Every structure is written in structure tokens, then in C-alpha cells.
Amino acid sequence: MFKNFIVLILLASVLISCKKEKSTPKKEEITQIGSSSIIKSDQPIAQLNTKADSLVSSWPEYKKFHDLIIDYQEISMSEALLNSVELSELALQLRDSVRVEKLNIPEVKIRLNVLYSETLRLADMSTIPTITEELVAEENNNIINAFSALNLKINNMNLREEINQELSEFIDEVAEENKNDSLDTEVENKEN
To answer: Which site from 26, 33, 115, 140 is most exposed, i.e. has the minimal number of CB atoms within 10 Å?
Structure first.
């Protein structure tokens, strides 16, 4: 009985020590890969033009998100994963706080929803212990592309507004000329 008890204790201690040895190298391996790998975005973030930048100047959530996403253009894998929860929280605040009335339209809201979804995916990846650098880099590019799409939409809205204004002025000018031409024609007809 005493021999069985000693054998049982030895067997338990061997199993426990083997279990610790197997799990320790994986954590070190993940840390080494994450800290040394730098992720660079495929494309730079599309910047706002001057009018669009002044439009979002009264939107502090946009500025906070912009300041953090700039770092994601070139970031280590571990930093990207560590900051992913903060990034998704800022994306949620950005989505829920459209302070500029011109931007409170479905086209912008859709882009904000896509941006938030992409940041959530990266935050989810931070909970996966065996995530690969390629997947993190791909998701990082998706986030940057989603933010660029938002910026391009804001830029295009301002350009469209300028074009519509110029077109309206041109139509008014042509209508005025046609009105003057028709008056001149009526005067000539009455003289004849």
C-alpha cells in the first residue's frame, strides 16, 4: 500500500512537470514573434483635404481615432494586438458620435460601421494565442483601408458640394443669358 502511494506521487509529479515544460516554450515563442515582428501597411492612410479637415475639426472622437490609427501604419505585432481593444473602443465612439450634421448620412455611417467591425476583428485576434503575423497584418491593412475609405468619402462629399455649387451658378448664369436674349428678341420683333 505504501509503495503504491509513492508510485502514485512520483507519477503525478512527472505528469505535472511535463505539462509545465510543454506550455512554457509556447508562451515565450509567441512573445518573441510578436515583439520582433513589425507590420507595415500596404498603403498610406488617405488624408483629408483642407475643407474636409476643417469640417471634422469639431469632432474630437475623429481626432483621437486618427492619432492612434497613424501608429498602425508601422507597428509591431504585439503593440497592434495590445492596443487593439483601445482602437475598437475609439472606433465605437467615432461611430456613435457623428457631431457634424453633414456627415450624419447613411454613406458615412456605413463606412464607420465597417471600420468598427474591422477593429473588433483585430481585438478578437488579440485573444487567440496562436495568431499568425500574416493574419494580424491583413487585418491591420483592412482597418487602414476602412479608415481611408471614410476619409475619401468625406473628401468626395466636399468636392461634390463644390461641383454642385459651380453647376448651380453656371445654370443660373445661362438662364439669365437666355432670359436677356429672349427679351432682346422680343424687342427686335416688336420693332419690326
So the answer is: 26
